[in-house]
Amino acid sequence: MRFLKLIRRNLFRNKLRAILTMLLLAVIFFFVATLLAILDNFESFSNAGEGANRLVVQSAISLANLLPYAHEAKIRALPGVVDTAKLQWIGAYYKEKSNFFANFAIDVDKMPTVFDDYKVDPKELAAFQADRRGALVGVDLMKRFGWKIGDRITLKRQIFPFDPELTIRGTYVHPVQTTSVFFPIEYFDQSLPAQTRSEVGTIWVKVKDPKQMAAISQQIDAMFKNSDFPTETFTEKEFQQNFMSMMGNVKLLFTAVSTCAIFMVILLAAITMSMSARERVTEIAVLKAIGFEQRLILGIMLTEFILLTLIGGAIGSFGAHFLFLFVDAGKMTQGFLQNLGVHAKTLAVCMATAAGIGLIAGGLPALRASNLRVVDGLRRVV
Amino acid sequence: MDTLVDINNVRKVYKRDAFEVPVLNGVTLEVPRGDFLALMGPSGSGKTTLLNLMAGIDRPTAGSIFVDGKEISRFSETQLASWRARHVGFIFQMYNLIPVLNAAENVELPLLLTKLSKKERREHVHAALGIVGLEDRSLHYPRQLSGGQEQRVAIARAIVTDPTLLVADEPTGDLDAKNAQETLDLLQRLNTEYQKTIVMVTHDPKAALHAKRTLHLEKGLLVNGYNLDTMASA
């Protein structure tokens, strides 16, 4: 503690250089924190159904190919299956394309059993199930558009040839999925041309015992292997990951970009820190002459360099944290990134990385300074 | 008077790439406690090297150095650092104050290595700045002080831990005549009033006149026979 004043004064001895270095670090860490938050967002989306014991059955050809309703009853009859629900992603939007969010047609009567992690007030659930054009809306989406129960909303078509006209009958709460709209699959089905009815994109299967999921998955696919509509069954996590992977290997891309940015900042920080240490050769020699030990000099300099990177890293990563508290990334990204936020884990990773940068970039200059012979340092004219 | 610094047949050879440069060639010297010794000699004669050796910031190639009964030439780097903090005060030609610290903070630096409380450190700093007559400049930064004042702050830093030995390397080399005189008077007062043992390297015969005795080095050896009075009036 008694050396903090010396460290603090040295940190800002060249104010312009210190501020520019911190700003550079702040920009890089804002960028890295944002990328990590996006990855985190994807990850939480993939883990949305964790512990829910659900399988997702889709066409073996692609998600765009539909399955006949008849598959559902056969799947439900399998031992170990608690219940099944048909679910169709609609892909409509509200008023403008920028108001994009997930909207699904669903077997409303199966929601309490298959999607039991979606918490709904029983009265609201009953009202939703009773209304052919009723909608169940995530709490965050209600807030985003200022909707109230009883409001009538119309979604605009993008994929299927109809515009769902819905009345909000209730809201649901879920740890991850808080911005979706569900409405009855009968309404969806009856709005389609006769030749495309009674088909659905996915059938969700609630399984009693998680240990049986792999076996049931194989049984389902084996059952339809030689039919006109072969299936491919995934756990919910695999399904969500497949959905995300349609965008390409985003994780690899983001990790590569973040690594490059951090490598670049290490080099720039190392240059700054080397300059800073070099300018102080005589002062370091004086400190050593009056009794500052090698380890103490090393500690003081490393603390200074790590503080520099920590301050820059904190400005950037906490800046991103606070920005996404107040800015609706969902709106900015046309609904692509819902509930984007830089969470505590990401902040901790950023701060640890910042400290690591200080240690790596400042390690050599600090070590060289601390190893300096007093007589050499006093003789040196910088 | 008992001996504070006892240097026995000390040799120092620097290695410069493939070459060996002998700087001290067997110096034997005793500095009594309370002495004010001036070391003179031409450039390259080894006077600063001798000063550095007795201050424990360099090690001899051969020979032994005892200070206050301890053979510092056998100390490790860490032992030397700790020993210097307690026993040696340094005064440099270029003052070498830390520019980001004010006068009081510069003087306080050696005390940070002690177990003194903040209050005790403040009292010591106040006392040291009082001795050099700069209490009113304690909050001034080095850039806000004249050369003479900077050197007096450096002297306060050197004496604040009440060291056994004060070493001064050309303390007036960067000062005008008036400030040089004030600095030398201060050193002389530290020697006479506070019984500080001082070893000073200087080129200036007038500066050496403030010392109790003067020794000359030439080509790494102590030599005798110089007439200081003649040199000072030259």
Brief synopsis:
The complex is a heterodimer of chains A (382) and B (234). Chain A has helices at residues 4-11, 15-46, 70-76, 111-114, 122-130, 139-145, 185-191, 213-223, 236-245, 250-279, 281-289, 294-326, 329-332, 344-371, 374-379, and strands spanning 54-59, 67-68, 81-89, 93-94, 103-106, 119-120, 134-138, 152-156, 165-173, 181-184, 199-200, 202-207, 231-235.
Number of domains of chain B: 1
Approximately how much beta-strand content do the residues of chain B carry? 25-35%
What count of structural domains of chain A?
2
Output the strand order for the largest sheet of chain B.
6-7-8-3-9-10
Q: What structural class results from the helix and strand content of chain A?
A: alpha+beta
Apparent shape of chain A: elongated
Oligomer: heterodimer
CATH superfamily of chain B: P-loop containing nucleotide triphosphate hydrolases
Radius of gyration of chain A: 29 Å
State the CATH topology of chain B: Rossmann fold
Question: On the 0-100 scale, what is the average pLDDT of chain A?
Answer: 89
Strand % of chain A is 15-25%
Helix content of chain A: 40-55%
Number of separate strands of chain B: 10
Number of helices of chain B: 8
**What is the level 1 CATH name of chain B?**
Alpha Beta
**Largest interface, by Cβ-Cβ below 8 angstroms: which chains and how many residues each?**
A-B, 22 and 25 residues
**Helix content range of the residues of chain B, please?**
25-40%
| Strand/helix succession of chain A | HHEEHEEEHEHEHEEEHEEHEHHHHHHH
* Largest sheet data of chain B: 6 strands, mixed
